[in-house]
Write a structure and sequence with these properties.
Length: about 300
């Protein structure tokens, strides 16, 4: 078992204006010596990573769910997600990596995956399998960015950002087609769900109750739950607990904290209550989960 989950940062030089890079991958190796880390073990980044698989096969584990790599496809990873890619020899593709600051500065109001909780409904999570037309569109955009990175003149940075914006807009367009809800939802409801999810991501370890999130959002708990249920088919409490259990899994595997310490870190005052919730959601006690996963990563 890993003693602590590695958190990787991108090495940008002081004179680099764009905190963005493209790495080509062929086989099991990344074809760039300046890539910041080896990827044989689960890890997470403090940056975004877009995996564009153009050929071959393998497996991609994202937050304890294993997905088969089907080329062509795009896997979108947010900062903080735990993942590991197992590449086969014939694998090929590209990694697009960029900092949060770069993304927020240049694409401030862009939701690549609209209302991020919606993605939990999708069988493949944040993964877009591509048809030939889609592949051609995305590949052409990537090749245009690569060409511009090589030529680099006074206009290159602005051109690169423009190509990337189209790339992200096309991702949003395609992800939006995959997300369906049984009930008709309004844009205001989807925006509310998105803001709620952001708050949960920022405060899950300290705030466990729907009422407190509703107060921050200026909504009643009933209206908040109605919007979330309509958009995600989950209750607000389920989204909060799912986020807590994801972090619990990460801590159980990638830290030396005891089960009781994990419970306290997530603001559960009663460790036995934490154990009951964890077992209900996973089918295993924290100790059994830790043992099972440590054997897997041995």
């Amino acid at each position: 078992m890993l003693e602590k989950i590695p958190i990787y940062e991108l090495p940008f030089k002081g004179n680099e204006k764009l905190e963005f890079k493209i790495y080509r991958v062929k086989g099991v190796e990344i074809q760039r010596k300046d890539y910041p880390h080896k990827t044989e073990l689960p890890h997470k980044h403090n940056y975004f990573e877009v995996c564009f698989f153009t050929g071959g096969s393998g497996k991609h584990e994202i937050d304890f769910k294993t997905h088969k790599i089907k080329a062509p496809s795009i896997h979108f990873l947010r900062p903080g997600q735990v993942h590991v890619i197992y590449r086969e020899k014939e694998y090929r593709g590209y990694l697009l990596v960029f900092s949060e600051e770069f993304f927020n500065l240049n694409f401030q109001n862009l939701e690549v995956i609209p209302g991020y909780p919606l993605i939990t409904q999708l069988e493949n999570g944040p993964i877009l399998n591509l048809g030939q037309v889609q592949y051609d569109e995305f590949n052409q955009l990537i090749q245009s960015v690569i060409t511009e990175l090589k030529s680099r003149d006074d206009d290159s940075d602005e051109i690169i950002v423009s190509f990337l914006k189209i790339f992200f807009l096309k991702l949003r367009q395609n992800f939006s087609k995959l997300v369906t809800t049984k009930n008709e939802t309004t844009s205001s409801m989807r925006a509310l769900v998105y803001r709620f999810n952001q708050l949960v991501e920022e405060n899950y370890s300290q705030i466990h109750h729907v009422k407190e999130y509703a107060e921050v959002l200026g909504e009643s708990p009933i209206n908040l739950n109605r919007a979330i249920k309509s958009v995600t088919e989950k209750t607000a409490s389920e989204i909060i607990i799912d986020r807590l259990m994801l972090e619990a899994k990460r801590l159980l595997i990638y830290s030396n904290l005891s089960n009781k310490e994990v419970a306290y870190k997530l603001n559960y005052e009663d460790p036995s209550y934490f154990t009951r919730i964890f077992r209900k959601k996973t089918g295993l006690t924290p100790s059994a989960f830790r043992t099972q996963m440590s054997e897997q990563y041995r």
